[in-house]
Amino acid sequence: MTGNPVLQAMERFSLQHGRDLAVGPTRWRYYALGQGPAVLWLTGGLRRAAFGFGFLKRLARTHRVLTPDYPPVLTFGEMSAGFDAILTAEGVTHFALAGQSYGGLLAQGYLARQPEAVERLVLSSTGPASYGPLWALVDDLAIALVRLLPERRVKRLLAAGLGKVISTPEGAEDAWRQAMEHVLVDDLSRADVVSHFAVAASLIRSRQIDRRVLAAWPGTVFVLTAENDPTQSPRDIPAYAALFGRQPVVLSMGTMGHTAALQDPEAYVGLLERALG
Can you point out the beta strands (E) in 6-68? Predict the structure, then answer.
């Protein structure tokens, strides 16, 4: 895999922009680049923000971008404490908050925790975090299966599931697929997979996402959605309106798919900059 151009680009990005931070017993890896208004970008279920090297470098032309990898923590409180520590270390007190896919769930929870610091919210290829208690039980079941099954099989199942929704540049599909499989199977641990579900369950059970807090927050909600994204539903926009007490601003990504940031970084940043102002 050393000759894989995607992995090589990720490594260069990590060496140039990566920073390490200890938050209690947890080691955080995050990336800081660019100048201008601050954006906290929360990546998706691949858990490694460096996958977005192409669009992050473009976004950094006009914005200061902070984006973490996700360590294998078990609660949303630990996850949000890491975000707090990164922002404090970088001297950022007010920022735009953006999340893609799984990161969109985390972004909605973090907004409810820090509404006074967030100036605007951008949600890309994700859904409204209006989950009932039943969803926490679904996450519990997933955790039980992850702990029961052989680790390599668990990670290959995760890779297969993500592979069904991830969109990548035409002509480079094999390089991206191989890079993703390498990170998911050889880099991430069983604890990372458990964390994926445990943090979501923790967020649901904590009732952090309070509709009253979100409705009182004065910022604008932007939703980026693609026509061919199988994770999106026509019910999402009305559910966002109910969750935030107002209609979101919807920006179409056309047919760029679930991971538009990977498929067409330049066009995706154009949409992000419209949302970020």
Answer: 18-23, 26-33, 38-42, 64-68
